[in-house]
Amino acid sequence: MVSCKGTTCTKGLYDVHALARELDDLFYGQIVPKKLKIGVFGCINSLGKAKSQDIGIMPSFKNPHKFEIYIGGLLGNSPVYGQHIDIALNKEQLICAIKFIIEIYQKNGKYPQRLRKVLDTNPNLWQEITDYLTKLVQK
Length: 139
What we know:
Layout (H helix, E strand, L loop, with lengths): L1 E2 L12 H12 L10 E3 L6 H5 L3 E5 L7 E5 L11 E7 L1 H18 L6 H7 L2 H15 L1
Parallel strand pairs: 1-2, 2-3
Antiparallel strand pairs: 3-4, 4-5
Helix pairs in contact: 3-5
């Protein structure tokens, strides 16, 4: 779990550290095929960081008090930006979304695959995630 400076920054839009702690309490120690980085960021200045996480969380700039996610970002030898899922989620929906993504990774990944490799190898999983998030916000 990583986060930006959050509300200690003048541009921070919400309490990043509180959300990061909550997510850490919920998801730390999950067994996954390879490391899984979740990043929580509070303003547009951290967009590049959010895009480079396995799961990057940003505030929704169109829908106040909601979040949007980026999935499948990687740094290192083969850097790639995570795919933006343009669906605004409240905190409870965000937690459900992360849980769902981790479950997909657990079911479909094999060591030493990172999340991005699993999703790119099984393109239907990208759609499965988008469909799940769409249904989540329609409830």
